[in-house]
Specification:
By secondary structure, this protein is an alpha+beta fold. Helix content is about 50%, strand content about 10%. Helix 1 packs across helix 5 and helix 12 runs antiparallel to helix 13.
């Protein structure tokens, strides 16, 4: 297990279109008519684990597409610019059968798997992202069941749908899932591709690319609906959102945010690539995908091929051995943003995270307590100081004695431990709202490229200026006068 990817057993569906369905469906011309701007809406995702495909044996395929989906197949081919190499099976399941397929029966978990669940829950608490001691396994099951509508499985090369009738909302879902089929047939999204990744950030940033591309085509399908179908879709979609919101009420917001990240950060990233170099640049990104979360959050870093700094894994404290280690790897900019912004001003957190250069972490058990150590290094001295200030604020906002930050040359070492059972952990539950900061920044950036013909670098500076000109409360409230003022000021700001 690596951080940002909850433990999964009998891996759940990897590529799913979800009830919370994507960034804002609107494509308001925010630079020219800011009054139409809406902050990106919430999305919850299926778990980030990848289902591996057996490359030695080939799954069966139908000779022809199900005739009920042929128009969607043609739509995806036209809008994605790729032709399906072969049809795939589409399994239409009722709610009960769908739940049985995606859920993991917890009674069958091994002791080691149960320990992994406990360890991950301890990490969430240690980092101040959750105050829950409830059934994490059931929470994960709800995410992949209540929180999803469909999935494409690269192992079986089949699409599974929750629903037995071809309704408008199901057709929208299929437009998303068939995009995953095209991605797999041309670029590979299963084990043959992903087992070559060496870091968890390569996994999560690739997933953002995959989901962002699918949401883009899904949005184009919605935009092409007739007025009658669009009204029906909006009504049905809202019911699905309400059902999912109720069903996920006891699932930690941080878990929902970790799964939402590809659906919030991926779409504007992919659309920026499309605006910059059309479909060819999106295809090239699949051949050579982003390697870090930073490259997804900041498109200029991807286009510059900005690589991560090599950071050594933190040393274990005295009395702790390798046998006590429960997790290790790279942490990533997205996880840093969620952790910091849960307790300090999210805009201060975003500024600090933008200076991310590289990191490494290790989680371990000491005297029955789960602890996490993370080594962070910034790109510049100024980045180092900005993160140190943010971490000092974060440590002060954590339960007394639960966390610390120590400068070690160019590296900052943060340590946090799960507080005692009697210690209350305050959770602001704003992780999903926080993810919308970099997502909205990319959306502003996209509109600057489209409408003002800004270069990618200039557009990023514009989007960053707009976001940081607002308070977090103004951002959450979509304060239109404040947004309009920020857009005008940042648009006219000298280069």
């Amino acid at each position: 297990m690596t951080y940002g990817e909850p433990p999964t057993f009998e891996p759940p569906p990897p590529y799913g279109a979800l009830p919370y369905a994507g960034p804002s469906r609107r494509r308001d011309r925010i630079l020219l008519a800011v009054s139409g701007f809406l902050v990106v809406v919430v999305v919850a995702g299926g778990l980030a684990a990848i289902l591996w495909r057996d490359t030695k044996s080939r799954p069966p395929h139908p000779k022809e597409w199900d005739p009920r989906v042929l128009d969607i197949v043609k739509f995806d081919e036209q809008h994605r610019g790729l032709t399906f190499k072969e049809p795939v099976f589409v399994d239409f399941l009722d709610a009960k059968a769908y739940s049985e397929r995606v859920r993991t029966e917890q009674s069958k978990l091994t002791d080691k798997e149960k320990q992994q669940l406990s360890a991950f829950q301890g990490e969430l608490r240690a980092l101040g992202l959750s105050n829950s001691t409830g059934d994490l396994g059931e929470a994960l099951n709800k995410l992949v069941d209540v929180g999803t509508l469909a999935f494409y499985d690269p192992e079986t090369q089949r699409v599974t749908i929750r629903g037995t009738e071809i309704t408008v909302d199901l057709r929208v879902t299929l437009a998303h899932e068939f995009t995953h089929v095209l991605q797999d047939q041309y670029f590979g999204v299963g084990k043959g591709r992903t087992d070559k990744f060496t870091t968890s950030q390569e996994q999560t940033s690739f997933r953002a690319l995959v989901e962002g591309d699918a949401v883009r085509i899904e949005n184009e399908y919605i935009a092409a609906l007739s007025a009658r179908d669009k009204a029906e879709y909006d009504q049905t979609h809202q019911k699905a959102v309400d059902t999912a919101t109720t069903g996920l009420a006891d699932v930690p917001i941080a878990l929902q945010a970790l799964q939402a990240a590809p659906y919030l950060l991926g779409p504007p990233f992919v659309e920026l690539l499309d605006a910059d170099g059309k479909q060819a640049e999106v295809d090239q990104a699949f051949r050579k995908p982003p390697a870090t979360d930073e490259q997804v959050m900041e498109a200029p870093a991807f286009l510059r091929h900005e690589s991560a700094l090599e950071v050594d894994e933190p040393a274990l404290p005295d009395g702790v051995t390798k046998d006590n280690v429960i997790d290790s790897g790279d942490f990533g900019a997205t996880s840093w943003l969620l952790v910091l912004a849960e307790r300090i001003d999210p805009l201060v957190a975003l500024r600090a995270v933008d200076g991310w250069g590289g990191d490494a972490y290790v989680a371990y058990e000491q005297n029955g307590t789960t602890c996490v150590r993370i080594a962070w290094q910034g790109d510049t001295d100024a980045d180092h100081l900005a993160m140190q200030d943010a971490l000092n604020q974060w440590v002060a906002a954590m339960p007394a004695g639960a966390a610390s930050v120590t400068p070690q040359g160019a590296v900052l070492l943060m340590q946090a431990c799960d507080p005692d059972a009697g210690v209350s952990i305050t959770v602001n539950n704003r992780a999903i709202d926080v993810l919308q900061l970099p997502s909205a920044r990319s959306q502003f950036m996209l509109e600057a490229v489209r409408q003002l013909s800004f270069t990618i670098d200039k557009a990023f500076a514009f989007g960053d200026c707009v976001v940081h000109s607002l308070s977090f409360d103004q951002f959450k409230a979509a304060d239109r006068p404040a947004i309009q003022s920020a857009v005008v000021a940042c648009r006219d700001k000298p280069s």
